[in-house]
From TrEMBL:
Gene Ontology CC, one term: outer membrane-bounded periplasmic space
Positions of transmembrane segments: none
GO molecular function: carboxypeptidase activity; penicillin binding; peptidoglycan glycosyltransferase activity
Stated name of the protein: peptidoglycan glycosyltransferase
Enzyme Commission code(s) on record: 2.4.99.28
Pathway: Cell wall biogenesis; peptidoglycan biosynthesis
Length: 713
């Protein structure tokens, strides 16, 4: 039997052992815990959204890219509603500002209740909850934490309080805490439940959000009860019924988070790649919004004419920076994913400035040259091509200035016959129309009227080339973005002449009148276009500072009803240019060296006398109509671009190709591959030989009246 002294020594050993164990445990708890600093935690936060900003840092578009969780931007403590901060502390840690990470009183009460069999109560402080979130090793799994995890959590909380301020802990907690479903952080919760930023939360909304924190998945009625209890505890019992109702309504309806900004969806999908990233663009958010609003108003006005889609692009002439990129806005659109800035559509009359520019550059014509706007029938490989003007009438002899400014079709086709298909096609390629990649003969004479498909992006940059005096350069969407070097595509004097024509109200009056959406208060040059069957409307032009392009139509390609470039796209172009003239005024361009300005008159009074610009060495004072026979003379057979296949079963002497000319001059001759064949007054029968051939119609002085090329196989 153990003596009393021995028992005392035994109890002393036990007591000393317990004390030693407690000292070791508490020493370990208070010794510190490896953790991240506040700056690192905040920097490591990744929103599930990516953000597109304008050139001044303003939000243009927000796009969700992470679909595993819903987080928004980190919210600094001053940007969180004080009502929410009070509610969170009341709900989760009432002595938050009076402890150093562990609430020993709450912990002791929790152990007392556990030992006495009472219902368990939580004793984790905000700091302990945050510590568990930062250290996944002590995070709560499917059950309650064990003693070891709880001690580790306490150790981490005490370390947090030693290294972080109370404000940093509270800010991190509000941003990292889980709410209902996929929502994490106060920014996502406030937007999802109440459609507002965290700074704007009311007392009632804050109480409901705080009531979610212990168990976000609870039934709405239980959340409402807890929110009511919090309201009573805060001395706001009058809010009880309101928070119950608010909890029920909020938690039983869908919770979509609408983007904070949604001005450039197509561009966002193009530029944003990773969740949490922020991309700064060259856009101007205010202008982007203005352009969208203008397009939407126009689509509403045209809704009864089967018009569903529209797009617009605005760029800075000097830098090539894109200022507005609106790829689709139609609420009735059935193809909203289509990028209307990059999609290719028929160009209509918008290619004519570059055609006439070639004719001026090669001195084939001047701005005062007369062209015949009269019926024209052209034989092609697929039949007779008969171009028509938009108004289905003919103006007779008109100057190049009038033909281009008033967008007459037949003079454009005659000019293409003069310039040549391949040369025009090559010029369009040089201007960045990369979709026009086939040989000119594929497009035929209708290329003059825009039968090829182009994008709004290509259109705007080609017209920007005119604005920059014939120099072509890349467009930029990102500040400081490296691009290709500039190159000269057109002479500066030719570019100025085309610009002067497109800016001439009198020149366009025959078709558009003097009062139209093309007339602006400041200097601007502009061209409209309408594709076949009114499927596409274009209006592209520039001011001294910016180039603006607008497209209106239907992405599916169905025709609009009685909508042309002047009534469809031009009103939007006018609104945008009017805004730009106020924001970015500039003087009219000055004439480059070498141009001459003369007073001219027309011998046949086709047009009133006027001042006209001429390239050096081409000026005249009186414009005399050419011999009409020369204008009408052309090769009828063979058709330009014809491909002839020799038949091996027919003797070569029995195979012929007829050479015929329409309205030839009496002295006109045919020349084949540089060799004169004979007079063109009557048809010639030529025995074909393999190869590519060039047939020309020449006058007595050897001047070319017409030419065709064809292939014999």
């Amino acid at each position: 039997m153990m003596s009393t002294g021995a028992r005392r020594r035994g109890w002393l050993v036990v007591a000393l052992s317990v004390a030693l164990l407690c000292s070791v445990v508490f020493g370990w708890v208070f010794a510190g815990h490896p953790l991240s600093d506040f700056t690192t935690v905040r920097a490591g936060w990744r929103s599930s959204e990516a953000r597109l900003l304008d050139r001044q840092g303003r939000l243009v578009h927000e796009l969700r890219l992470d679909h595993t969780v819903r987080r928004l931007e980190w919210v600094p403590l001053p940007a969180i509603s004080p009502a929410l901060l009070r509610a969170v502390i009341l709900a989760e840690d009432r002595r938050y500002y009076r402890h150093s990470g562990v609430d020993w009183l709450a912990l002791a009460a929790a152990w007392r209740d556990r030992l006495s069999g009472r219902p368990l109560r939580g004793a984790s402080t905000l700091t302990m909850q945050l510590a568990a979130r930062l250290d996944r090793g002590i995070a709560l799994g499917s059950g309650r934490r064990g003693v070891g995890q709880k001690l580790r959590q306490m150790r981490a909380a005490l370390a947090l309080e030693r290294h972080w301020s109370k404000q940093e802990i509270l800010e991190a907690y509000c941003n990292l805490v889980d709410y209902r479903g996929e929502l994490q952080g106060i920014a996502a919760a406030s937007r999802a439940f109440f459609g507002k930023e965290a700074a704007a939360l009311t007392e009632a909304e804050s109480l409901v959000l705080a009531a979610l924190l212990p168990a976000p998945g609870r039934a709405p009625a239980l959340i409402g009860d807890r929110a009511c209890a919090l309201a009573d505890a805060a001395g706001q019992g009058t809010l009880c019924e309101e928070v119950r109702q608010l909890a029920f309504v909020t938690l039983t309806r869908p919770r979509p988070i609408l983007p904070a900004a949604e001005l450039a969806p197509h561009l966002a999908r193009q530029l944003l790649r990773r969740a949490g990233e922020t991309v700064v663009t060259t856009l101007e958010a205010g202008l982007q919004q203005q352009v969208r609003d203008s397009l939407q108003r126009q689509l509403l006005a045209l809704a009864d004419r089967n018009v569903r889609d529209a797009a617009a692009l605005v760029v800075d002439n000097h830098s090539g920076e894109v200022l507005a990129y609106v790829a689709s806005v139609g609420s009735a659109s059935t193809a909203v994913q289509v990028d209307g800035v990059r999609a290719r559509r028929q160009a209509g009359s918008t290619l004519k400035p570059f055609l006439y520019g070639l004719a001026l550059e090669h001195r084939y014509l001047t701005a005062a040259s007369l062209l015949d706007d009269a019926p024209l029938n052209l034989e092609t490989m697929v039949g007779i091509y008969m171009p028509q003007n938009y108004e289905r009438d003919f103006k007779g002899l008109v100057s190049l200035r009038t033909a281009l400014a008033s967008s007459l079709n037949i003079p454009a086709v005659r000019t293409l016959m003069l310039v040549g298909l391949e040369r025009f096609r090559d010029r369009l390629w040089e201007l960045g129309y990369e979709g026009i990649e086939r040989k000119g003969e594929y497009y035929g004479w209708s290329l003059a009227l825009g039968s090829a498909e182009v994008s709004l992006l290509e259109q705007v940059n080609a017209y920007r080339t005119l604005a920059n005096g014939g120099r072509f350069g890349p467009l930029r969407l990102l500040p400081g973005e490296a691009g290709g070097t500039e190159r000269r595509v057109m002479p500066a004097d030719v570019s100025f002449l085309i610009a002067d024509i497109l800016a001439d109200p009198a020149g366009r009056a025959r078709t558009f009148g003097l009062a139209s959406p093309l007339a602006t208060r400041g200097w601007s040059a502009v061209k409209t276009g309408t594709s076949k069957d009114m499927r596409d409307n274009w209006c592209v032009g520039w001011t001294p500072q910016c180039t603006v392009g607008v497209w209106v139509g239907n992405f599916e390609g169905d025709a609009m009803r009685d909508v042309s470039g002047i009534s469809g796209a031009a009103p939007v172009w006018h609104e945008i240019v009017t805004a730009l003239e106020e924001q970015r005024p500039g003087p009219a361009p000055a004439a480059p060296p070498g141009l001459e300005r003369r007073q001219i008159s027309f011998a046949g009074a086709q047009e009133p006398p006027r001042q006209e610009w001429f390239l050096a060495g081409t000026a005249v004072e009186t414009v005399v109509p050419a011999d009409p026979r020369r204008q009408g003379a052309r090769i009828e057979s063979p058709a330009d671009g014809l491909v002839v296949a020799l038949d091996p079963d027919i003797p070569p002497d029995h195979q012929v190709i007829p050479f015929r000319a329409r309205m030839p001059l009496p002295e006109a001759v045919f020349e084949l591959d540089g060799q004169v064949l004979g007079a063109a007054a009557a048809a010639l029968r030529w025995h074909p030989r393999s190869g590519r051939h060039r047939l020309r119609l020449l006058d007595a002085a050897g001047h070319e009246l017409d030419r065709v090329t064809f292939l014999v196989r």
